[in-house]
Amino acid sequence: MKIRAEQPTDEKAIEEVIKSAFEHHPHSNQTEHQIVNALRHANALSLSLVALLEDRVVGHIAFSKVQINGKDLSWYGLAPVSVLPAFQNQGIGSALIREGLQQLKALNARGCVLVGEPEYYVRFGFTHSDSLVYEEIPEEYFMSKTLTDMAIPNGVVKYHKAFNSG
Ligand SMILES: CC(C)(COP(=O)(O)OP(=O)(O)OC[C@H]1O[C@@H](n2cnc3c(N)ncnc32)[C@H](O)[C@@H]1OP(=O)(O)O)[C@@H](O)C(=O)NCCC(=O)NCCS
Question: Is 21 touching ligand 1 by the criterion CB < 6 Å?
C-alpha cells in the first residue's frame, strides 16, 4: 500500500471512496464527499492523502484548519477519513491517520481535533479535553491531540464553513 498527496486526477475516485465508506454510517448524512469538494474549492484542504493499492484509490483522509475562539492557532481538524468497505480492517485507515499526523507536524501544526469513536482514535493519542469545546455532539466524541509541547488551548472550536455543505 502506498500513501501520497491527492492529485487532480484522483478527485472522482476520492469522491467514490468517501461515498461508499459513509453509505451506511449511522451518524452520517452522506455529505462528506461534498465537504471535501467544498474544502478543495475554497483552497482549504490543508492535507488530502490517498491510500493506493495497485494504483487504485482505496482510502482517503482530509485535514483542514479549525478556528479556536475565532482565531487561527495552527490547529487542524481531521475529517473525513474513509476506506472502501471491502478494504476496511486491514490497517489502511490507521496508516492514513498516522501519516497524516506526521505530515501535519511538517506544516507546523500545533494540534488536531476530530469527531469520532473514542474506542478507535485513542490508539493514535487522541483524548477528550475539557479545554476545547465543540457544542454539536456529546463531548466524549470530540477528541484532540497536541503535536507540540504546548498545552491544549482553551476555546470553542469551529470547523471551516465547507462543513456546512450539502
Ligand atoms: C473508520 C475507518 C476509516 C477505519 O479504517 P480501517 O482501515 O477500516 O481501520 P484499520 O484497519 O486501520 O483499523 C481497524 C480497527 O478499527 C476499528 N474501527 C473501525 N471503525 C470503527 C468505529 N467506527 N468505531 C470503533 N472502532 C472502529 C476496528 O474495529 C478495528 O479494531 P481492532 O484493530 O481493535 O481490531 C473505516 O472503517 C471507514 O471508512 N469507516 C466508514 C467511515 C467512517 O466511519 N469514518 C470515520 C469517521 S470521520
Answer: yes
Rounded to the nearest angstrom, the distance between the alpha carbon of 70 and the centre of ligand 1 is 31
Q: What is the atom index within ligand 1 of the atom nearest the CA of 88? A: 8
**What pLDDT digit, counting tens, does each position of 33-51 carry?**
999 999 999 999 999 999 9
Q: In what order do the strands lie in the sheet with 75-83?
A: 2-5, 47-53, 56-65, 75-83, 111-115, 142-146
Ligand 1 touching residue 90 (CB < 6 A): yes
Percentage of residues of the chain with pLDDT beyond 90: 96
Q: Which helix (H) or strand (E) holds 22?
A: helix 11-22
Domains of the chain: 2-164 (3.40.630.30)
